[in-house]
Design a protein that fits this description.
The chain is an all-alpha fold and 338 residues long. Helix content is 81%, strand content 0%.
């Protein structure tokens, strides 16, 4: 077998492996199933609500402690690239999602329209954006900076965009500003301020801290869907609605991928920068979205708002695995030129 054939075979096996379901998403769906069969109700509901508030604060504290200010500040020198990524994440996505939410109910189910808009307002992912950029032989340093900056700005921009787009419809809580400050912004800033002293500890213990982080998100999902089930979510959203949502999310991702790819080429970016723009500009963060939904949406609305995000998350992983493999298989001469 030639070297090129061997490399192609390994790449094909790699992206086939990445087409498997995200097992953390499977755990999240398991929490949805548990909440459907045994929702927290009655006297247990306030206790789970308090635990969820603490968990959300913990998640954003860890986000703040992990994000390197040096990486974000250093990456800002590549301002053209970051302008395109942030423009896609906080400009193109919200506009497209607002358009999708405005479509007739037989296309976009009215019960899910708010969740579609919420999806469009979220920041990009960090881990998968960087991972796919590495696989595709893109500009990894710029990907770290772009994804970090997106999440840093998302702490403020996502609630602002949600308030602007959904508050008039009553989807955002009236005291959301207070909740954002206390549950999102304050813990995040505390993590950033304490990073100088706890950054080494967080890095050394990333394994078990990530389990606490992910466990907290599972608790948020269970509490949100418990409230949604008690409120009758499965009477509002049926199998046909979920099928429509699958098509909507796939179409949304295809449009954004094409737009980021076209913008990178039209603006003359080198191939490694193009890869960074495509992967960082086309993703939405499940890790940030779940706790934000718990803060920004009251009661049953939080569980419903998460459905578009969970569907989009799996589609983006599968699609970007294939795209990263195709980028990785390009000739070395193409890797150095546009």
């Amino acid at each position: 077998m030639s070297a090129d054939a061997a490399r192609t075979s390994r790449a094909r096996q790699g992206w086939l492996g990445r087409l498997k379901p995200d097992w953390y998403l499977v755990l999240i769906l398991t929490m949805v199933a548990i909440a459907t069969l045994a929702p927290a109700r009655g006297a247990a509901a306030p206790a789970f609500g308090l635990a969820t508030s603490i968990a959300i604060g913990l998640v954003f504290f860890l986000h703040g402690a992990r994000l390197s200010r040096e990486a974000v500040i250093g990456g800002l020198t590549h301002w053209r690239l970051h302008f395109v990524v942030l423009g896609s994440t906080f400009g193109l996505f919200p506009i497209l999602c607002l358009g999708l939410a405005a479509l007739p109910a037989w296309i976009t189910p009215s019960a899910l329209a708010g969740g579609v808009v919420f999806l469009g307002c979220l920041p990009s992912t960090i881990q998968s954006s960087i991972a796919f950029t590495v696989i595709a032989r893109g500009n990894v340093a710029a990907a770290v900076a772009a994804a970090s900056a997106s999440n840093l700005l998302g702490v403020a921009l996502t609630p602002l965009l949600v308030a602007l787009t959904l508050h008039a419809k009553g989807a955002a809580s009236p005291h959301a500003v207070q909740a954002i400050v206390l549950q999102l912004l304050a813990p995040f800033l505390a993590g950033q301020l304490l990073r100088r002293w706890i950054g080494g500890f967080v890095t050394r213990n990333a394994g078990w801290l990530s389990k606490i982080d992910r466990g907290s998100i599972l608790l948020v999902v269970y509490t949100a869907f418990s409230s949604a089930v008690v409120g009758g979510v499965w009477r509002m959203v049926g199998a046909l609605d979920l099928t429509r949502l699958l098509v909507i999310c796939a179409g949304l991702l295809a449009v954004v991928l094409l737009a980021t790819w076209s913008a990178a080429r039209a603006l003359g970016f080198a191939k490694p920068d193009e890869i960074t723009i495509v992967f960082c500009g086309s993703k939405k963060s499940l890790a940030s979205g779940v706790p934000m939904a718990g803060v920004l949406f009251p009661g049953p609305a939080a569980g419903v708002a998460l459905l578009p995000l969970m569907v989009f998350h799996q589609i983006q992983l599968m699609a970007c695995a294939v795209i990263a493999s195709r980028y990785a298989n390009r000739r070395d001469s193409e890797a150095e030129s546009r």
